[in-house]
Design a protein that fits this description.
Oligomer: single chain
Distance between the termini: 29 Å
Number of strands: 8
Helix content: 10-25%
CATH superfamily: Histidine kinase-like ATPase, C-terminal domain
Number of domains: 1
Strand content: 15-25%
Strand order of the largest sheet: 3-4-5-8-7
Number of helices: 3
Mean pLDDT: 77
Shape: globular
CATH class: Alpha Beta
Order of helices and strands: EEEHHEEEHEE
CATH architecture: 2-Layer Sandwich
CATH topology: Heat Shock Protein 90
Structural class: alpha+beta
């Protein structure tokens, strides 16, 4: 049974980029606005006032569900982390080979995404783990379909908001979609990946 067994709505469409007003200080450059710099990791999502919007996309439909957790508060994150480590170890076979740091990457990203969902989303917060061969899919969902995930930029260390940046750095791929159950943010991790 796959993670996305039920029919899902198409992911929200990105709004086409419009013409933006010249930023403050453009007059200092003779009315010409210098080219914008690319965001971290050369992402190409839509800019927001506080970062870069994450692209809407679905994970591959080939993943098989392993386990689901429903969280109502941050205290449950400790249990989630331990359960994720155990589930990944139990789901790995000798064919997968050594897991390396995959369990720790999954646990860290799950903690970040679940914390975001608990703090900024609406109940229920759910965490799902699925597998397709040597690749694990982590999916965190909440009921706030109107709040699109974005990659925080321009914040000082310690100000928070870097969960998706961490997910992008530690996983193979990151995306999100919305359906009748809520907003889902997902990341994939490969047990044979040396990165």
């Amino acid at each position: 049974m796959g993670v996305n067994d039920e029919p899902t709505a198409a992911p929200p469409r990105a709004t086409p980029a419009g013409t933006a007003a010249a930023p403050v200080g453009a007059a200092a450059h003779g009315g010409v606005v210098p080219p914008a710099t690319l965001p971290a990791d050369h992402l190409s999502g839509r800019p927001t006032p506080t970062g870069e919007e994450l692209h809407a996309s679905h994970p591959a439909p080939t993943f098989v569900a392993l386990r689901r957790w429903v969280l109502s508060n941050a205290v449950q994150l400790r249990t989630l982390r331990g359960d994720l480590r155990k589930q990944i170890a139990a789901s790995s076979s000798s064919a997968v080979g050594p897991l390396g740091d995959v369990p720790e990457k999954v646990v860290l990203v799950a903690s970040e995404l679940a914390t975001n969902a608990l703090a900024h989303g609406r109940p229920p917060t759910q965490v799902r783990l699925a597998q397709d061969g040597t690749t694990f899919l982590l999916e965190v969902s909440d009921g706030a379909v109107d709040r699109h995930p974005f990659l925080a930029e321009g914040r000082a260390p310690g100000d928070g908001g870097f969960g998706l940046q961490i997910a992008r750095r530690l996983s193979l791929d990151v995306g999100w979609y919305a359906d009748s159950e809520g907003k889902h943010v997902w990341a994939t991790f490969c047990a044979t990946d040396d990165a």
